[in-house]
Amino acid sequence: MTTLPAAVDLLVVGGGINGAGIARDAAGRGLSVLLVEEGDLAGATSSASSKLIHGGLRYLELGEFRLVREALAEREVTMAMAPHLVHPLLFVLPHDRSLRPKWMLRLGLFLYDHLGGRKRLPPSRRIDPRADPMGAPLRRDVAAAFVYSDCQADDARLVIANARDARRRGAAILTRTELVSAVRAGGAWRAEIRLRDGAVAALEARALVNAGGPWAMAVAQRAGGLHGNAALRLVKGSHVVVPRLYAGEHAYILQNDDRRIVFVLPFERDFTLIGTTEEPFTGDPRRVCCSDEEADYLCRAVSRWLAAPLSPAAILWRYAGVRPLYEDHAKNASAVTRDYVLLLEGETGKAPLLSVLGGKITTFRRLAEHALERLTPFFPSLSPAWTRGSILPGGEPAGIDTLRGAHSWLDPVLCDRLLRRYGSEASAVLGDAKGPADLGEDFGAGLSAREVEWMRREEWAETVEDVLWRRSKLGLRLDRTQQDRLAAHLARR
């Protein structure tokens, strides 16, 4: 188990995608780093997204050209960095006369194709949905549609991969560990940390990074209530998962009559993911949930375009997350900027506090670079930026034939799942197993004791929820009895 160091260069508070990305970048530049996370890695917003790495087509309408350009460029970088976790996906955008005119969509797609230096993905095009197989699920009176490219991602595992690489480069990662307070003392931060056993320990850090997501302002309060009038606007986004609605590996982006859009996405081979809503949120982000009204809204949005209506009774799983958006005083939640803001408090000779407000999972790597740029004056010997062109654990070239060559007994469905979760590390997960019996107890859907042990040993998994809903999505497949057996196994460990 990782122990608390007495002193570090950088203390990062928050184990979502931004905190993990900053910890990785900083460790790779030679800084000593400690990341503390009060719960599980990716335990909040970073596991409750729409699972997309995308430029944000609709942000063009809001004039967010810089954000879209950066996100599209990062889409290319992230595909190369984690090819096992980020996969190309075609999106079908159906059209009718009641919504945005076709010329506006064509212009938006032209910009989307060219703003970010697209290299790996095909360009957008127009299709006749009545003749193209991708239009088959749509209402028969839908006479026009466009197709463009983006990427689907495993959001929580992207966080885990960044945290693992940060640890590999020397960072200490402590989950179930909370920042209690931080005060400046002698040019450094003196922080009090509550450990998982309830004990409070102290350490010193030359700089403090606040990547608390929805709790960022609360973290700032624990460091003295800095940043003046800066604020977050919390916006709830809800999603539902239903049995697979259509054949094919494409997605739909549906324009709703309230001018919002809803994604309909292939998910975990046998399911369809639908989202998202955007509702103002107050209260404890730990208690966020998808309401019946939001579930009804998403089903109505799908039924408006697909030939087969969708009832809320079909929902197998629903989840919600709180987006910590920088408060720019937009009138409605849909118009609030998705760009990130880095607030730096401190000058030369004074220990800095850098707070991350806003942002989206697509731009995490660039956000981390910008964060280290802001901290460079406090660390003059800091190594240069390095993450562009880097590979996350599991991203090294490997294919299904490589895994099956070493484990020819492996079930093809399980083989595919392991490759999409672990990439080139899938063989390491299986270890020296010569057959299914060597994998230990089977909890269902191919989840073995050996895989669970990898999650515990390498990925900080401790609870059933950690294993079934963040490290995997096998909660969709395991029944209550199987989940209870897993819980008993984890308790014994």
Q: Look at the helices and sheets and give the structural class.
A: alpha+beta
Count of β-strands: 20
Main sheet specs: 10 strands, mixed
Note the gap between the termini: 14 Å
Estimated radius of gyration: 23 Å
Oligomer: single chain
**Reported CATH architecture of the largest domain:** 2-Layer Sandwich
CATH topology of the largest domain: D-Amino Acid Oxidase, Chain A, domain 2
CATH homolog superfamily of the largest domain: D-Amino Acid Oxidase, subunit A, domain 2
Description:
With 493 residues, this protein is α+β, with helices and mostly antiparallel strands. The chain folds into three domains: 7-45 and 157-231 and 338-378, FAD/NAD(P)-binding domain (3-Layer(bba) Sandwich), CATH 3.50.50; 79-152 and 233-330, D-Amino Acid Oxidase, Chain A, domain 2 (2-Layer Sandwich), CATH 3.30.9; 400-492, Orthogonal Bundle (Helicase, Ruva Protein, domain 3), CATH 1.10.8.870. The chain is built from 13 helices and 20 strands. The chain has helices spanning 17-28, 65-81, 102-114, 155-168, 216-222, 292-303, 364-375, 400-406, 412-422, 426-430, 449-459, 464-471, 480-492, and strands spanning 7-13, 33-36, 52-53, 86-95, 125-127, 144-153, 172-174, 178-185, 188-194, 200-210, 232-243, 251-255, 261-267, 271-275, 279-280, 317-326, 340-345, 353-358, 442-444, 447-448. The strands form three sheets. Strands 3, 4, 5, 6, 11, 12, 13, 14, 15 and 16 form a ten-stranded mixed β-sheet that branches. α1 runs parallel beside α4 (155-168) and α1 packs across α7 (364-375).
